[in-house]
Amino acid sequence: MRKLLRNLLRSRWFQQSAGLLAAGFLWLVWRTNRFSYDPEDVYDIVEPQMPVVLAFWHGQHFMTPFIRRAHHRGKVLISRHRDGEFNALAAERLGIETIRGSGDHGSAFNRKGGVGAFKEMVRALEEGYNVALTADVPKRSRIAGLGIIMLARESGRTIMPFAMATSRFIRLNNWDRTTINLPFGRGALVGGEPISVPSDADAQMMEMLRARLEATLNDATRRAYAKVGRPQFEADPEYQTGHA
């Protein structure tokens, strides 16, 4: 029975159906939440610097396709894991192109398609696409990795950290505290301080900028939840469950 269920979840038709349903649900969430922006002129700040590297936390990703305006070109990095297939199909239904691979620069970097994905992200930025990816790597939630710093150094493009939150959500008790946003509430898009990485950045500077990105994303996430009236869910890192 377990094998049958696993095969069902991995089947192409099931993943396509789930991706289509997820995209429709997320569109409903976007259309029925009243979103505010912090700063209010966030697009005026970002657009002159495009293409940019958009950074966000794992588990806080479901609303990120809607950061893109109609005239923006964007691609998002999604893992090759079978769970990533579902996310990729949903993103593509919402008009976001995908790059498949790993942002982790650890021992499994080659096996997870990281080298090819890194080159593809650099190439996409050169072609004028904004590239979005999580700053943290699997199983190390809310700890920024060096991969995104390396991407900014190699491409010469600015990192734009941001967070999106809704007042109504369900939070899962998993490693990245995945937040499933719900419709009919309030939403917030909060932009953090842009981060530029010099092309000659050494290991010490790279680590300093990595720590700055981590702090900036944590601050943006706290501000986003405060703006929708749910500050307690980011004030306490052990708070694992949200309520609709």
From TrEMBL:
InterPro entries: DUF374 (IPR007172). It comes from the Bacteria. Residues 69-140 form the DUF374 domain. Pfam families: DUF374. This is DUF374 domain-containing protein.
